[in-house]
Amino acid sequence: xxxxxxxxxxxxxTTVRLFAGDAGPLSLTERGAPTPSFTLLGDLPGGAFMSRAxxxxxxxxxVVGYSESTALDPNGGHEAFRWKDGQMxxxxxxxxxxxxxxxxxxxxxxxxxxxxxxxxxxxxxPFRWQNGVMQSAFIEESYAGEMSTNGNFAVTSTFGPGxxxxxxxxxxxxxxxxxxxxxxxxxxxxxxxxxxxxxxTVIGRSHSAGNLIxxxxxxxxxxxxxxxxxxxxIDNEAxxxxxxxxxVIGRCWIIGLPAQPFQWTPExxxxxxxxxxxxxxxxxxxxxxxxxxxxxxxxxxxxxxxSVASTxxxxxxxxxxxxxxxxxxxxxxxxxxxxxxxxxxxxFRLVSPEPAAALLLAPMLVMLRRRGAGYRRSxxxxxxxxxxxxxxxx
Length: 394
Description:
Helix content is about 5%, strand content about 45%. It is built from 3 helices and 29 strands.
């Protein structure tokens, strides 16, 4: 994840639309078992062949990201895309010209609204795309983050007199969330790395006293909470958050060791995430987690995503590695980018054979089958964070 010098983070609330979660979780029968598939999404015309998916809608139907294209910069550059029903379309940008670009970074629950970055003259600004129209999402020079299911979004701002940390735009009212005490907003400042599906919570990191970088959670109505440190940690950051904002995953740095994953809840504070990984996204029920080239669930631990896809009977010919970047609300659709043997990078959409909850049922079903109970064994699925392996996040 790129480091961005920042002074502020803005959470913009643009719509208030709720989805199926309001009626409670759907059963496996109601959700059905999707047919596993692996789809390379292609790229936009012009320039070198390259595309990367950055986000997927909560319902799994719409993928957004960016691709090489000559639509904005005649010499070739990045253009935001939206993919749905097998078709990738470029979203354009502000004004074509040398150095111009656009990149999609987030999408709402049904895929109808896209968030991203574009260059306006010499300034980088977030955009909001809907119904074929791209508009500025925030007036200051800033960088777009993720978008929640209901259309809330996070923006990292690099401009604003007197701004010392987050500013949160909630129903048109701006709320300032200050940098942690002792932090320097002109240096590392505050970075945002994720937003909860319900749009109430953002997570990331903040510069703090002692020249330390500390993971933070900001929740509407609660404010900023410093995550703290594991023993021996010198810096840390939060990288993923649950749907309700009450489970945070991240990583910490200990001198002489690789980055260590952690988990945090309001009830239990920060704890090592033993056998886990520093997630970049998780399913809404926190049973599946993705990060690096891996996928995690409580039953199987961390596994290589490409290897798991192969066990589902999906052809991986010509694929060197899969890097996941986002996951649908029910955990059945994973998107990201594939490194291929021809040295190109291409966006992908991976559909697993079962909803997330089936992973937890699999051992029971196997046992019943061995006893002749006549239950069909649940096909093994993905990997993520469950209450069996983490503190409660209710």
